Amino acid sequence: MEVINTLGRRKTAVARIYLKDGNGVITVNGRDYKEYFPTGTLQYVVTQSLEVAESMGKYDIKVNLDGGGITGQAEALRLAIAKALCEINPEHRPPLKAKGLLRRDPRMVERKKPGQKKARKKFQFSKR
User: Could you tell me which of 21, 30, 25 has the C-alpha nearest to residue 46?
Assistant: First the structure.
């Protein structure tokens, strides 16, 4: 099997992955994913696509992560892995789609407007 290259995005985070046959090593920016994502919740998010497709320990994944925060990066990585698994085997698509792992989450940070404190918060109104 050749190397599969896919891309996942979430908020401002971009995950580029290279997936190939192996024994389940996930390397993120040159470090192990358990070191890069210290909390159990984020580690679960990263491996969620592999668990749903029952492919844990079958593939080596090399990841380049850029932009965003740690949560956005983990969710971008989850989408990229799900896309790569569908490319390898189309039979993985229905269970991944049922869990919503093939949909890019469109929510982004709302921009700050002029004359306001933040995106929605206003400065205190003074009548006099």
Answer: 25
